[in-house]
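Fold it.
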Amino acid sequence: LKMDEVIESGLVHDFDASLSGIGQELGAGAYSMSDVLALPIFKQEDSNLPQENETKHPPFQYVMCAATSPAVKLYDETLTYLNQGQSYEIRMLDNRKAGDIPEINGKLVKSIIRVVFHDRRLQYTEHQQLEGWKWNRPGDRLLDLDIPMSVGVIDIKTNPSQLNAVEFLWDPTKCTSAFIQVHCISTEFTPRKHGGEKGVPFRIQVDTFKQTENGEYTDHLHSASCQIKVFKPKGADRKQKTDREKMEKRTAHEKEKYQPSYDTTVLTECSPWPDTPTTFVNNSPTPAPTFTSAQHNTYSVPDSNSSSPNHQGDGTSQGSGDLHPSATIQETQQWLLKHRFSTYTRLFSNFSGADLLKLTREDLVQICGPADGIRLYNALKSRSVRPRLTIYVCQEPLRSIQLERQDAGNGDSSNGAIYVYHAIYLEEMAASEVTRKLALAFNIPLHQINQVYRQGPTGIHILVSDQMVQNFQDESCFLFTTIKAENGEGFHIILK
């Protein structure tokens, strides 16, 4: 025990001695945290952290010459009031440091200015909202460029299918100002209830691109936007005055919660507009008309080719237009394009077949609007159009023709044979439609059918015309036979 005590006391003495020299070499005044942080281990860790001067520096800055509202909370996004149709200057400023993006030195860049919806709900139905506005304001644009007042803008273009966007080229090294005019007001996109409509906010967004090797301005450089509300002429001035008077009535403590009003609005950085590189920037003839061509197709492309086989029940193309739950994202995109929903391919870019089929009718109407929403719902559920006329046709066997004529009303012959009729669904009340559907139903080459006759009183043959088809009774039954044409080429069909 004594030996253990001796050993323990010796260890304690050595430990105290080892601690006694700490701090004596540095002295009381020399010791500081900065010296500790200067040690190599901390320097190595600091080298991995981003330096303050290495933060991303935007190459451009866009400043709109319109005052911000004083009634905006301190940490909320600024809000700027504009008058409908009034010209507002947007200064396009080169904000690059020395050596930044040298490839655009001495070259032009392209900018696209848009007025878009701030509300995400309205963004999903933007196409329908703009189409409705276009219907109510034919010939007008949502956004225009005041060319006489603008400075330094070159090659100004507006796309007829993009009423809310303008584009132009400009030289970053020169003074450039684009004067914009917004023609839509915020209350035009709100549901009209019991008065006191509250206008929806918009966004002014600027996307800038540089030229690629193939000469197209598709290489994105910078995007920025700001929140606005648009009022009828002089309405923005009154709203600004009202907000200012409200703020003056608040206490000093309450005013601290709000940001001050600035004479100009600086657009803040944001993500590029999604469809910029494909639909508007290239200005190629192919993508630009997709908006309108899709609408034209709704009325000009007949559905008879796709819907007829489904009516026939012969299995030739049954279900070929259906979207299956197992369809991949790529297959779903192809299905949307095939069924004239190209406008919504970007909106449903991450939807598989199962995702799209899970949407209800109400979901689709809310996303795509009433017209296209119902059309998409019907296409997904394979709801075919009701035919204008239905007739039943059976091919008359070659044997015992006389006997079969006697038993045609009973549907079977004396030897027990059953007549099998095919249903012919007519979307068009025309003789050519009858000929085409007979050829499809009975696998007859269409070019070999010369004429279609109907057997009349006393066995006469009456040429089937459009007027005769229009007078067919719905669900009429016919037997038909074929006879060779007089010239030996093809044959005639006789309906009995």
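Residues 2-20 form the longest helix (19 residues).
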